[in-house]
Design brief:
heterodimer; A: mainly alpha; B: mainly alpha; 30 helices; globular
Chain lengths: 112, 740
């Protein structure tokens, strides 16, 4: 019967809806199956380059390949923006070690 | 306080306003009977002195701008001071009382025209009054330059002439003060310009740089400046900074090349520019027409882009039917989200010192300024700049912070002017071949005042200081100065005079002898972050010029020695160091050395210079990023700047064999866009061909490399780490044990 018991039962409970977290292009996303692993997987089959005499069409093919990959990975960002974000991520410790690993993998493949 | 609309806002204390207005009224006015004649009030001199006192004891002392504002509203300058001065001029200037009044007018004109700038510690009052005062100053300037056809500038000189005639040893402080007043008035006139933030009143042409220059030429201000500059060591030692400031504000932003063209060349250049602009416009139109819809806007085309895993994307519009590139471009363009940009650095507050904005001059003004510049180079350059340098170095009382920046910029401008003048002279000589006598080779003695060891030491110290304190504007001016010195020396070494060649050899040796200079140039290029285009332009030009000259010089002098200063650890490691010092240090050791900077001493040591190794230092990710940032402006760059970027990338890819540094998707994207568009380089330009070839070669290498090393597919996304870059380029590990 004492309303000032301090339990706060009478106070209205405010419900604040949490905002949907915005998708981010971060290390996790970049290293997920859709990220760089997929790039490595598909490069062989998707990226057919013609070589000498077709320099500019080859460049277009390379750029398109990356653009479509990036659009799948992180549809929100424009191509140039996405590239800048990924480049920045490349400076992190985790990615540096991963990059080194990928290269080492190739080296051992070569020596086999 | 908030005042509701319609109510009068009192920006100035009414009592102050009443006092000031009554003084202005008592000064004099136009007589009713004789309406075009200004009549002085009975106590005019006392009134003028009172006004001055108000400015000093109210405005200055309690840090307000109220009195200046009232005087602007009361139209003191154009309504009273200028008529009084012009009366004095026409009445023969002999009356002593009138002369004193004229001087009192000058004493008021200087503070009233003093540049009103936005600065850090402004009060509410300053914010309130500054825009009005800036606008009023433009009015003052217009009045001073064009008051009823009378020569007010000449009048001002006349006021100071008696003091000028006195030899320096006999001059009183009052005389020096009068000279200062005159010069500061001219400086103020050359500074004042229509503020870009305020609405123009439609006749800004009347206060433009061209008009100022023409007035200076017609009314002998230039003659006065020349006299003072050439005698700065003897008779006018206190005035050097004021003279420097006037010169700086006259020449900042003026294009030297255009200044020295004759009319035919200039019109040709203008037509070229016009042609360029027109062709740019038509190519824009062509570009649009290529992709413009061929049917009406509601024709409603939609296509699917088939993608992996049976996914589809849709893109609408007929233009996308054409080819894959436009489709993908459109897909990209239709995205709404933009990456948040890092906030720009705070804009430079002082507006009067920017020299990156180009200024255009009318043809009369060009002629006037050119003859002034030539005479100045012939007589005033050495005395003035030597004197100014000494004054700045010993931190004389009259020197302000801004002066050293002005010094370096002005020096660089005049050095360029001297070089361009020489080529122009050669050109005119060839034009009149047969008629004129054989041209005598000129020596570079005219600009020798800034080509001595003292200047280099001063410049080096200033650059280091700027680098340490991140004064980017200062550094910008200093880099330009250094570049111009290098170019002048280069010209000198080609001179037919043996003496010049010898001196040039000496100077080059001195410049290239210190390894710290080399390291500083490197640090400047690598240090670009967001300093703006002016810095970018200056640092890329400096590195371009420096590298090329050093390359040639070290080829000619194979035994070039440089003094290098290495950090060496003290005590125990000292012995170890003695053995390893000669060898190349690997980067990790370098880094750990940097950490122990406290207990490090510097060891100076001479060793032979290896250009290959030095230029390799330029081929790092940081410098590539700087040049990449520069190239992003390719649409605005002129062919000389594009060539600079081209040479650099060429050096990276083919001279240093480090094309891996360029294998990054964003760089390839930019290169592709520059050549293939949309919005690429103009294919009719000669530079285009060079760039096309370069990009073709780089892409060819890229394709080859991708085949050789599939790991590049992922690495293409990132800046390379040093360790892996070497592997990617050469296919094997770097040999760690390299001996020199």
């Amino acid at each position: 019967d004492n309303p000032e018991l301090g339990l706060g039962l009478d106070e209205e409970v405010k419900v604040t809806k949490k905002r949907q977290p915005i998708a981010k292009l971060d290390e996790g996303r970049l290293l997920s199956q859709n990220g760089i692993p997929r790039l490595r997987r598909t490069a062989k089959s998707k990226l057919k380059l013609k070589g000498k005499g077709h320099e500019f069409s080859d460049a277009a093919r390379i750029l398109n390949f990356y653009q479509l990959w990036l659009d799948d990975l992180f549809p929100r960002a424009k191509f140039a923006d996405g590239l800048a974000m990924i480049e920045k991520l490349g400076h992190s410790k985790r990615l540096q070690t991963m990059r080194r690993e990928w290269i080492d993998e190739e080296k051992t493949n070569f020596s086999k | 306080d908030v005042v509701s609309f319609g109510q009068e806002v009192q920006v100035v204390d009414p009592e102050v306003r009443a006092h000031v207005y009554s003084l202005v009224t008592a000064l004099g006015g136009f007589n009713g009977e004789n309406a075009d004649c200004y009549v002085l009030g009975d106590d005019a001199l006392a009134c003028l002195r009172d006004i001055k006192r108000w400015l000093k004891l109210y405005d200055e002392k309690i840090n307000r701008m109220d009195v200046a504002r009232c005087l602007g509203e009361a139209n003191l300058v154009n309504g009273d001071l200028l008529p009084i001065l012009s009366n004095w001029w026409t009445s023969g200037q002999n009356n002593k009382h009138m002369s004193r009044i004229a001087l009192a007018c000058l004493e008021l004109l200087v503070p009233l025209t003093w540049p009103a700038e936005f600065h850090k510690d402004m009060t509410v009052n300053h914010h309130r009054h500054t825009p009005y005062i800036q606008q009023a100053q433009v009015r003052y300037k217009r009045g001073l330059l064009s008051y009823g056809g009378s020569n007010l500038l000449r009048t001002v000189i006349r006021i100071a002439l008696p003091s000028m005639a006195v030899p320096r040893s006999e001059r009183t402080t009052r005389d020096e003060g009068i000279l200062k007043l005159m010069l500061y008035l001219f400086r103020n006139i050359s500074i004042i310009s229509q503020s870009a933030r305020l609405a123009a009143e439609g006749d800004e042409e009347e206060t433009s740089r061209s008009v100022t220059i023409n007035a200076f030429a017609e009314q002998d201000v230039f003659a006065l400046l020349l006299t003072m500059c050439s005698n700065v060591g003897d008779d006018f030692s206190q005035q050097d900074m004021a003279l420097l400031e006037i010169l700086f504000h006259l020449v900042k932003g003026v294009n030297v090349e255009k200044l020295f063209m004759d009319d035919v060349q200039r019109t040709a250049k203008r037509t070229d520019e016009l042609k360029d602009l027109l062709s740019k416009e038509s190519s824009l139109k062509r570009e649009y027409a290529k992709n413009a819809p061929t049917r009406h806007g509601r024709f409603g085309t939609m296509i699917w882009v088939k993608r992996d895993d049976a996914k589809m994307s849709t893109v609408s519009g007929q233009d996308v039917l054409k080819d894959e590139q436009t489709t993908l471009l459109k897909m990209d363009q239709s995205k709404k989200w933009n990456k948040p940009q890092p906030r720009r650095r705070q804009e430079e507050l002082s507006t009067n010192n920017s020299f990156d904005t180009p200024t255009h001059l009318s043809s009369t003004a060009t002629k006037n300024l050119r003859s002034f510049v030539e005479e100045f180079l012939d007589s005033g350059f050495n005395p003035l700049f030597t004197h100014v340098r000494k004054a700045i170095e010993r931190e004389a009382e009259r020197v302000t912070d801004i002066n050293s920046r002005q010094f370096f910029y002005t020096v660089s401008w005049f050095l360029e002017a001297e070089r361009v003048r020489r080529t122009y002279q050669k050109y005119t000589h060839e034009q009149s071949k047969g008629k004129a006598k054989e041209m005598e080779p000129d020596s570079f003695a005219l600009v020798a005042g800034v080509l001595n060891q003292e200047t280099f030491v001063f410049l080096n110290r200033a650059m280091q200081y700027g680098l340490d304190h991140k004064d980017w504007e200062d550094i910008n001016a200093e880099m330009r100065c250094f570049t111009q010195i290098l170019l002048t020396v280069q010209e000198m070494s080609k001179s037919p005079l043996e003496e010049d060649q010898e001196i040039a050899e000496n100077i080059q040796n001195r410049i290239f002898y210190e390894e710290t200079t080399h390291d500083r140039v490197l640090a400047l290029v690598r240090g670009y972050k967001d300093q703006g285009f002016g810095y970018l332009d200056a640092c890329t030009e400096l590195s371009h010029v420096f590298l090329r000259m050093l390359e040639r010089y070290s080829k000619e002098n194979i035994d070039l020695q440089i003094r290098s200063r290495r950090k060496a650890r003290r005590k125990k490691t000292a012995e170890k160091n003695a053995t390893t010092n000669g060898e190349e240090e690997d980067p990790e050791e370098q880094a750990s050395e940097d950490e122990e900077i406290e207990d490090a001493v510097k060891v100076a040591k001479e060793r032979t210079f290896d250009f290959k190794r030095f230029s390799a230092k330029f081929c790092t990710q940081k410098s590539v990023d700087t040049f990449f940032a520069f190239t992003k402006f390719y649409k605005e760059l002129d062919s000389e700047q594009l060539k600079r970027a081209h040479r650099y990338f060429y050096r990276i890819a083919f001279k240093q064999e480090m094309s891996v540094l360029l294998f990054r998707v964003d760089i390839i994207n930019l290169f592709y866009k520059m050549i293939k568009g949309p919005g690429g380089l103009d294919p009719s330009k000669p530079v285009f061909k060079e760039w096309e070839e370069l990009v073709r070669q780089i892409i060819r290498r890229l394709v080859k490399k991708i085949e050789q090393r599939p790991a590049l597919i992922t690495e293409l996304l990132f800046s390379k780490i040093n360790a892996t870059a070497f592997y990617l380029e050469y296919g094997h590990e770097k040999q760690t044990l390299t001996s020199e």
